[in-house]
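Lab notebook, bench 4. We co-purified these components, and the gel suggests they stay together. Before we commit to crystallization screens, I want a quick structural picture of the whole thing.
Request: model the full complex, all chains together.
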Amino acid sequence: MAPFSSRRASDATLIAESLGRPEAFAAIFDRHFEAVHAYLARRVGAVAADDLAASTFTIAFERRAGFRAEAESARPWLFGIATNLMRNEWRAQQRALGALAQMARVADVSSSDETELSLGGADGALLARVLRELDEDQREVLLLHAWGGFSYEQTAVALAIPVGTVRSRLARARNRLSAALVSGERSESAASREGQELVE
Amino acid sequence: MIDELDWVKSLRPPADPPTAQARAAALGRLQRAIESEGSDHASARRRSRVLALLVPVLAAALTVVIGGAALLLLRHTASGPGASSAPGYRGRILDQSGGMLALDRTVYALQITLRELPSSSQAGASELRLLTSALRLSRRPASCPVPGGPTRRLTAIECQVARGRAQGAGSVTIGIGVSSRVRMLVDTHRRELVGVSITRRYVRTYPFGTLAPQLLGTVGPITQPETQDPQYTGVSDGAIVGQSGLEYEYDSYLRAGDDVRLSLDFGLQAAGQAALSRASRANPPASGGAFVAMNPENGAVYAMGSLPSRGSALINRAIQSAGPVGSTFTPVTALAALQSGAWAAGDSYDDTGEFCTNGQCRHNSGHATYGVLDLENALRVEDNVFFSNLGALTNNDAPHGGALQTWAELLGLGRTTEVDLPNEMPGTLPTPIPEQPWTVGDNINLAVGQGDLQVTPLQLAIVYAAIANGGTIVTPHVGQDIQSQNGTILDEIDPGPRRHLKISPVNLKIIRDGLRAAASQPGGSSADVMSNFPEPVYGAVGTAPFFNKGRLADDAWYAAYVPATATGKPIVVVVTVQQGGLGAVTAAPIARQVLSQWFLGTPGPYRPGSSTAQ
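Here is the predicted assembly.
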């Protein structure tokens, strides 16, 4: 007996089906758990990601009636739930910022090849600092796009905002990044100070 | 000038994939949410609220564009006895931590009660037309053979109704697995749709279909031959019964609606299965294999996997595929020689590179010569010449053989382990019998785990468990307890040991030290794979040559344990890869991943071994 008859069905079909047959939702987990976990792990570290990723799917299951069926893939919707979880949990927030600082330091010591060297710990620390200074809305747009690999449209679905808002928030984030990169903030001392501060 | 976005992208931190345990835990939480929704009245109310919001939309769709694209419908029609009967709920199969491995999901069938269908043919016909549209079935009439009557041209639903009436059936089932929207639609229009009802059915589902399908087994409507099986006494025609694997073994409990919880560890099962597939792919012409992980103290099976895991004939190779096991057999030879006095602690032997009897000579792998060594060191390097000598020393042509046969039998070889799974193979223990000639060469073959010896991976696990626990022959079991639907434990599954062997502590120590050295000391047969493992591993490699389609191929074996004296979670692991080549190269790394998952929570990378010991 096939475990799930609807293997090739779209996410939207599966979620609709799961309204009457809740077990169908397990296939959504199979399709997207790794991706959701990876994004959360980048943001808050693997340990916190385990819990948040699990919560993402139970919440998604409970709210599945609200899934907008015109979206083919459930991934942006799931990332949106994951993003809200990160925002709502203050501790997760702190971990997110801590993880960035950690990343900066790890990049510094483990850089062994050319590309990593050129990125170095200073860049990580600078990015950590810029991200922290960015307004929360801009940060989420930037990272869903740059680290989550989402298009403007998918980012809009994830955050339930118009595409125009995605564009404007991203433009502001870019301006801030550009300013930071140009104005020579990438000094080693500034970076290590920043990393220190964030860890505390 | 770098692009800011590219710069941010380039700083994307690495992310390791989630551990098998984290994944299983997350899935467990989701499954509990799914499950609680099925039974929880509060959530049922919440769902009906959702339905209430959708109903007007659907009703509009029905009146405006009947059968329009908004409706999500399945087109199944009733077929087979399972579909037309209403079997009862079947209990679930759960893993150690309660994760669902097999469960009944509820599906809904659309049923027409024939005598309630409007008697006026016009009203009845218009109702069937409405259903045809709603279910998006073809409106075009097709040839419909009606039993005992002329073949007519009817639409699909009209045909079902006509056939049902001709057969004197009370009702006909039109669709199985109808979506919630069809259910709502029928509910909304129940006044127009007289005689149409939605009934609940159960369909067996395996959320992890490719994980341990042989172990879980299958269910289906009871067959004619099965009605003769005493296990199915009192089962009505058309009922769904377990037909293989655990579904068969625990059928009476499951049919009564109780859950069977296994000792199986989901994460370990997944890690073992992945390691086995990967090693099998990486070592052509490897053609599948099996692994077993078990508690050596009480026989609780933690994982049992078999490849291939797809296809029509699913063989559980862990219990149904027996073969020669190569040098993994040598601890049995050592035990027989020591216990019978054919060999004593402190005795040594000079391995000159070959052992010859009756003009037939045996060599070590790669024609290695190990010189003077004792039994412990012979186990460390897997010295086939040494154990050939022990085979000659323990040979006895008398019926039932000598010490080697006696101890192999005591350790459970040549008979089933009585695991709680159907169709286990007993394997073969080569023994002198009166009518057939027996030579010392046959005993030497047995001593090095070759020739006609046939052992299943589970049998080998029982042997190593006995060495680990000091001589207890445990009864392996996959089932742990029987639970009611609300989680109350109704029955513990604890078969208890089969027997306890009296083994001299001195002799046991020699064998254990040899196995420990094999996995940890320089020159040890699996030391390159196991020596840096944080827990003390006791292991032996095996490579069993056999002829396959005229060409010589090797089955790779590895057997190992971490004893209860060293850890609170003792485990014995046996791995075989068919046509996998050297046991040290192919099988030991799989066992390492299983042990790593068990003790460290992550399987770690697959690294082929480099030892050429056989």
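Residues 31 and 88 of chain A are 25 Å apart (CA to CA). Worth comparing against the SEC data before the next meeting. The radius of gyration of chain A is 19 Å.
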